[in-house]
Amino acid sequence: MNFDTLHENLRLEILRRIDRGTLSGSTLARATGFQQAHISNFLNRKRSLSLEGLDRVLAAQQLSVLDLLPADALPPLSLRHKPSPSLTHSLAVVTHTAAASTPRIQPSEIVDSIEVPDALLHMTRDRPLPGRVSWQRFVAIRVDASQAAAMEPLLRLNSIAVIDRHYNSLALYRSQEPTVYVVQFSGALHLCFLEFDANRLILRPNNRQFPVHLLELLPNEQPANRIVGRICYVLSEL
Known about the structure:
single chain; 434 Repressor (Amino-terminal Domain); Umud Fragment, subunit A; 7-stranded antiparallel beta sheet; 9 strands
């Protein structure tokens, strides 16, 4: 990623924070020592930041360069953790409630198990919410009729969807492909595409005959708090 791309990604991230009410231009100006007009010109593409200025904004917002990259530009997990010698890994298929809210899955919450390629798990990149790092990372659920219908033809009834619960970011996983998320909404798990606008998460189905849902966030609540995880693998019967 070159400087211009980094500069633009930072501008968009700051605008997202302002849009959701967790930041203001005046607050950022005070934190960085810039004039408010300088920040306004940066946000409106009228003036660029220097490298030193970019560093000041990153530090003020507790961001790193990695936070501004799509996940497919990050080093794979296999380079950060030693892979298992096994070719497959056994994953628990759990209830929808457990997938959404149980940090460490209990035996009573397991309804089945599946084998997935071990290399897949080690190559999967993460972007966890800080509070989710201690959660059991990968769990699987069985896709029910409403979930399958909303996301057809991407998902089929009774297919098994593996959830990476350490991916709670709205940053694209692959730069050219939409990410399928799992979100808890109105007492159910929704498998959907996600957008964020005006302090709301927008839950979009793949099937346009199904409704779009709007999830209002609480004041100062981050979108990541509502994201259960990312669908990283689907197993369907032929």
